[in-house]
C-alpha cells in the first residue's frame, strides 16, 4: 500500500496553518522591534526635554510622525510617545486591528529649563 497520497493530503491541510503562523510571528516580531525603537526615541526626546530644547523635541516628533503627550503631576511630567504600526497578517489584524498603536512613557522631574 502506498502512503504518499495520504502524506500529501496532510501536508496540504497543514500548509496554510503553517504559513499563517509564520506570518503572525513575523508581524508580532515587527511590533516588538518597533516598540524597542520607540523606547530609544523616547530616551532621545527625554534627553532633549531635560536640557530644555523643546523646539528640537517638536521637530523630532514631526519628522518621525510620533504623537507626544505631556501630563504634569506635581513636580513631575509624564511624557508619553505613541506611534501607529501597520499589521499585515489577517489573523493578527483581526485581534489587534489594522493599525496597532504602540506607546511608551517616561516620568521626568520638572525644573526651570522645561517648565
Which properties best describe this structure?
115 residues; alpha+beta; three-stranded antiparallel β-sheet; 3 helices; 3 strands; 25% strand; rod-shaped
Count of separate DSSP helical elements: 3
Terminal-residue CA separation: 82 Å
Q: How many beta strands in the DSSP annotation?
A: 3
CA radius of gyration is 22 Å
Mean pLDDT: 87
Strand % is: 25-35%
Uncertain segments are none
Q: Percentage of helical residues?
A: 55-70%
SSE ordering: HHEEHE
Task: Give a verbal description of the structure.
With 115 residues, this protein is of the alpha+beta class. Helix content is 57%, strand content 25%. Strands 1-2-3 form a 3-stranded antiparallel β-sheet, covered by helices on one side. β1 and β2 (76-86) form a beta hairpin.
Compact summary:
This protein has 115 residues and is an alpha+beta fold.
SSE layout and pairing:
Layout: H1 4-50, H2 54-64, E1 67-73, E2 76-86, H3 90-96, E3 99-109
Antiparallel strand pairs: 1-2, 2-3
Helix pairs in contact: 1-2
Amino acid at each position: 500500500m502506498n502512503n504518499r497520497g495520504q502524506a500529501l493530503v496532510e501536508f496540504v491541510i497543514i500548509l496554510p496553518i503553517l504559513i499563517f503562523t509564520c506570518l503572525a510571528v513575523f508581524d508580532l516580531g515587527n511590533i516588538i522591534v518597533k516598540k524597542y525603537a520607540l523606547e530609544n526615541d523616547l530616551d532621545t526626546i527625554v534627553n532633549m526635554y531635560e536640557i530644555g530644547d523643546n523646539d528640537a523635541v517638536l521637530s523630532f516628533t514631526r519628522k518621525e510622525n510620533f504623537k507626544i503627550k505631556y501630563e504634569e503631576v506635581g513636580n513631575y511630567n509624564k511624557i508619553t510617545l505613541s506611534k501607529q504600526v501597520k499589521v499585515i497578517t489577517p489573523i493578527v489584524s483581526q485581534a489587534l486591528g489594522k493599525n496597532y498603536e504602540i506607546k511608551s512613557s517616561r516620568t521626568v522631574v520638572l525644573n526651570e529649563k522645561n517648565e
